[in-house]
Amino acid sequence: MRRVLTIAVIVWRELLRRKEIYVLLIMLAAMLYALLSVNIFGLGTTARYIMDLGLLMAWLFTIVLTVTVSCRQLPDEEKRGTIYPLLAKPLTRAELLLGKWLGAWSVVSCASAVFYLLIAVVVRAYGGSFEWRTLAQGWVVHLSGLAALAAMGIAFSTRMTYWAAASMSYVVIASSFCMLPRIPEMLVGVRGARATVLSAVYYLFPHF
After folding, report:
1. Which residues have CB under 8 Å from 116's CB, separation 6+?
2. Domain-by-domain residue ranges, the chain?
3. Whole-number Å distance between alpha carbons of 180 and 202
């Protein structure tokens, strides 16, 4: 477990060096500022409107961050040639993959917490409020989805380049959001092999 945590710490240091979390935080703050500056349908800067779109942006930003961080871990190590000294040490492949996943997931989990906190502060400043227990439950579910997404990105990157792994991750995410919710309706009118295939897709794909 100590070696796994060491790999996770290395992922943290690399991400902080690249300063991508700060860029996403600035983007979220800029978009929240834009939301506060517009008057949609004459509603003004209502707290409910800010809360809904702010949380949506937090989800989108953390998805992009998770795909970016997880899919580049192994390809970057291979490009720099540092993966070979790592595996030459008393470090198993499973420990390397688990450490990379833990590092990527913990980074985006902390980033999502910062995003949620920023949204809560802005909503509170405009007279709105959260049901904090429900918000905490939503955040835990959010982290569960990000954990699956980080694992998927790491898995794709073991056999693909960064861009191919990231593209495949986005395809799976888009399919999960757009196609999976419709499969139960499609199963009502089909039988046989087609129903088997649809059921397999429904249970194999992650339900983000």
Report:
1. 55, 58, 135, 139
2. 2-162
3. 6
Token couple for 204 = 């194999």
Contacts of residue 112, defined as CB under 8 A and 6 or more positions apart, other chains included, come to 58, 62, 139, 142, 143, 146
Q: How many whole angstroms separate alpha carbon 176 and alpha carbon 201? A: 10
**pTM for the predicted model, two decimal places:** 0.82
DSSP secondary structure letter of residue 180: G
Round to whole Å and give the CA distance between 152 and 102.
13
What confidence tens digit (pLDDT) does each residue in 47-100 have? Answer: 677 778 788 888 888 898 899 889 988 888 888 777 777 777 777 888 888 989
Q: In angstroms, rounded to a whole number, what is the distance separating the alpha carbons of residues 169 and 40?
A: 34
Q: Which tokens is 133 given?
A: 């227990």
